[in-house]
């Protein structure tokens, strides 16, 4: 793919696409007979590629990757000692080399992704994200902040149902929050199970669904790149209590979020207050 562009949003797009190409090739090479081996190889191949390119082209930046050893730890003691470089860095790449490993290892599934996001200390937005890209390699597309998609049109159900329109709500196919069935009945929503968080937020960005709610536990790399793209597109993104999403925190856990059309945000946040406990 040649030398990467130097502008961060375009670089994120280039890097996510490059990792995605490697993952598609790995799928073809290994096949699906041993899903466990394919998942492990996918994580390693994409992580190694992304880490190598970041070291080459962004050597002064810190990195938080899902596949880094100890990435899930909350660095309380180390923060006090000042030994965690990303917490004092001005720029941190937050990456998920393979979001949706389960789906990646299932033949025919396309709801898996590669996430590449950049957090900056001087960012104007509360979440601190200044660039991001979500590659959906099996769908042959990359969504990124250098050329963010247009604000999504309403779904067919939304457009034809007026004020009482049906909201299409993306949820985890394997671990949806238990309260979502009641919430969906409350707001008149249809639940749409999907794989990776990146694929679900991408579906909101493209208008295939109207919202995505998650409350089952995630980490920063699960949502950083998709949230960067979603907010660049003009969508609402927050915690389920309405507070701001924050990245490059000492504790990388970011357990819940809401991404939706702005016209649905107040309605969904009110319903979440009633049902999420």
UniProtKB/TrEMBL annotation:
Which cofactor does the UniProt annotation name? Mg(2+)
The UniProt entry's GO biological process terms, in alphabetical order, are: 3'-phosphoadenosine 5'-phosphosulfate metabolic process; sulfate assimilation
- What InterPro entries does UniProt report for this protein, alphabetically? CysQ/Inositol_MonoPase (IPR050725), Inositol_monophosphatase-like (IPR000760)
Q: Which UniProt keywords apply?
A: Magnesium, Metal-binding
Q: Which Pfam families match?
A: Inositol_P
Task: Note whether Metal-binding occurs among the keywords.
Answer: yes
| Residues annotated for Mg(2+) binding in this entry | 66, 96, 98-99, 222
A molecular function GO annotation: metal ion binding
- Origin: domain of life: Bacteria
Xref: SUPFAM superfamilies: Carbohydrate phosphatase
Q: Where is the signal peptide?
A: none
Q: What is this protein called?
A: 3'(2'),5'-bisphosphate nucleotidase
